[in-house]
From TrEMBL:
CDD domains referenced in this protein's UniProt entry, alphabetically: GPATase_N, PRTases_typeI
Binding residues annotated for Mg(2+), in chain numbering: 302, 364-365
Function: Catalyzes the formation of phosphoribosylamine from phosphoribosylpyrophosphate (PRPP) and glutamine.
Pathway(s) per entry: Purine metabolism; IMP biosynthesis via de novo pathway; N(1)-(5-phospho-D-ribosyl)glycinamide from 5-phospho-alpha-D-ribose 1-diphosphate: step 1/2
Coiled-coil stretches noted in the UniProt entry, renumbered to this chain: none
Record: active site: 19
Protein name: Amidophosphoribosyltransferase
Amino acid sequence: MNVTHPFFDADGDKLREECGIFGVIGARDAAAMTALGLHALQHRGQEACGIVSLDGREFYAHRGIGHVAQVFSDNGIFEQLPGSVASGHVRYSTTGGSGLRNIQPLFADLAAGGFSIAHNGNISNAMTLKRELVSKGSIFQSTSDTEVIIHLIATSRFHKLLDRFVDALRMIEGAYSLICMTPKRLIACRDPLGIRPLVMGRIGDATVFASESVALDVVGAEFVREVEPGEIVEVRTDGRITSHRPFGETSARPCIFEHVYFSRPDSVMGGNSVYEVRRQIGAELAIEAPVEADLVVPVPDSGVPAAIGYAQQSGIPFGLGIIRSHYVGRTFIQPSDGARHADVKRKHNANRALVEGKRIVLIDDSIVRGTTSMKIVQMMRDAGAAEVHMRIASPPTVHSCFYGVDTPERSKLLAARMNIAEMTQFIHADSLAFVSIDGLYRAVGERQRSAACPQHCDACFTGDYPTSLTDLAERDNAADQLTLPVGQVA
Ligand code: AMP
């Protein structure tokens, strides 16, 4: 079943996106720094990117389809992006959503002046809001859910821009980390549950915001702190910083899948090194699902830290039994199914000299459709492995994400269709095990998952969605999509 909607899909575009955002205020070469920051966030979206800059009077923009290094390959581009304020976006959209008009940051001339917005996340009532806005006369330029925020700001009954902004945020549900620019300030904010990440840093007199701390490292900025869930940080061009908490105290539900897969291992998230968490998940997995074997082999790159943890905990030697070509992008992040299939083969090759005759423990971070696991297990067998035991450094992915991580509809999720025995057979492994949800929580530093008040958004594993899913609930087929409560408001 496809998560599509005729209202938004007139030209085949869809709403779900994976993204990274970066913004800086107070730097002489703000646009060039933003390009560098986006380059460090490239793993969060590889389809398109853009930068908007501001020189105190005018806004300037450059956007394009492709990687940051391609779209911003020419130094001359930065001469056309002057100013000490800039923000940028890297984007991946699901099949068909790669139109030029959806490339962010989006820009609009509002009554109060120019306004740009870069968004990571997904608004789960965007279609409903868009329908209302259009019926009142709004004319949309893109099919991106982010544009809904601009129209809500434009039509707000409040006078001051910040009040309009808060008014708009009160109407949206779902996940959003935003970096916005107005003629006099940069505004960074995180949704009340802090589902998607956003960090703040400093370099000289400049203030920097980024989806992940790795982008601060790369531009030479010092990590200051995370933007808090529900916080709006306003930085003026004169350097003054104001923090607003319009939603009061909220209980955070940051996405646990950022730790499992999405973030770069050299980022620090929620005070934890992503690499260390992944290594720890591997150690938990070795305790929960031991197996007699000769070699622990990671599926590169995403399985490497967990495989190191598994090997350290179990005492089984670690070895690179699969070599990855670095000239192919992330398997999953390819817009069409055909491209994805071809990529698995081009991306990984067995290291026969290491694998032949051995009992292998294969470690990957997750199974989504099962395509990767099936091919890699077969690759190990073809290279002469005696046994292949698959261990997965996350619980089974049984539910779709509606908060900005691209997981396919439930019907395509292997774990939603099959039990462990069936999955084992499907991927043709000798055994298969996933880390438990509590094992995962232990790895991120919790004693266990609190059922009453989960410390993270883990809806992809548990079906416990922390916000209403208005658009989804509206659809005729919603019943098939969700088996667990829709409409819980944290
Ligand atoms: P699949 O072949 O469909 O089972 O996908 C599993 C592979 O995709 C794993 O090796 C993961 O590293 C990767 N992966 C899992 N979830 C995501 C995601 N949301 N976005 C991109 N890649 C992912």
